[in-house]
Amino acid sequence: MEKIPSVKTCVINTGNILSLNDITRKSGQNPSEELTEAINITIKEYKNGSVNGTQNSKLVIHRPSDDLRVKIEEQALADLKIGLKIFLNNDSKGLIQEAIEEGFATLKVPCVHNVVLQYKKDKLIEAGDDISSLKNIWSVLEEYVKNEKISQIGLADVEEATFRNVFEWATIKPSIIQINLATCCVVPPTLQSFCKDNDVQLLTHSDPSGSKDAIFVMPVDIPGFIYAGAVAAGGVLGYYRAGSIPSLAAGLLFGSALAYGAYQVSQDPSNYSVQLVTSSILAGVMGYRFYNSGKIMPAGVVCALSGVMIVRIALKAAGLTERKIT
Fold first, then answer.
1. Of 215, 237, 264, which residue constitutes the final position of a domain?
2. Could you tell me which pathway this protein works in (predicted)?
3. SS3 call for 210
4. Total tally of structural domains belonging to the chain
5. Closest by Cα among 326, 20, 11, 6 to 184
6. Do residue 34 and residue 62 come from a single domain?
7. What is the pTM of this model?
């Protein structure tokens, strides 16, 4: 292999990763591993002398067997929604412009449907978002939209407050926000509502991230699921002991409803209506049965559990046990 000439810029174009058999044959790889392997394969082909990618002061490394252009040409450009995602750790306007133009040149298209920006300064990865720098490079994206080269622009992996700040400030609003699945369990309901009210696409992704800390974390409603399991188990126990089909049916019905309610609360802590209504019905029915029979099992126990759940929901609704979002 000849010595690589001195260059100022190096572009590594892996092309269509799905066309790399060495990657598609391996199951269970995460996006970081797939990207790393794709880069290694692309560089290996360049080292083998299969590609001459030196262009003036820029070195372009790509695979000669890549079928990306073929895939694009199979469809009319108007029928495609091509998106770019740009990762930056520098707020240079020239850098983001260069990245966008390189994307156009690589795909050989005059415009794309959307561009999503992930911006984090290396030294500030653990210190929150640099809003002033983010706004500086956001203006570049706005110009591309005004020139009809990009239809939609968005942000990835920013805090909710940052996204709201940019949204209120920007002339051309971000219409996309991406949340990393690797660092997010459940998206906060406040962000969900904001996106719904402002027609913002709320998307998830699993791209490599430089930060190991979670942006949004909300735990599963474990007490709710335990309560649902206890109610269902009570119905099964009633059928086992006395052969009562009504007890079995009621236990499974209410247990399923409570499990669904617990799932809803896990997704959105403010969505507790199913859990509250079901618990209230059980508290009333079982309380009446306990009053008439005096039996602790199952009427007394289920009534007590239902009462505890109602109190728990009331406290959460009042904000006294609000979960923290880190």
1. 215
2. Sulfur metabolism; glutathione biosynthesis; glutathione from L-cysteine and L-glutamate: step 1/2
3. coil
4. 3
5. 326
6. yes
7. 0.58
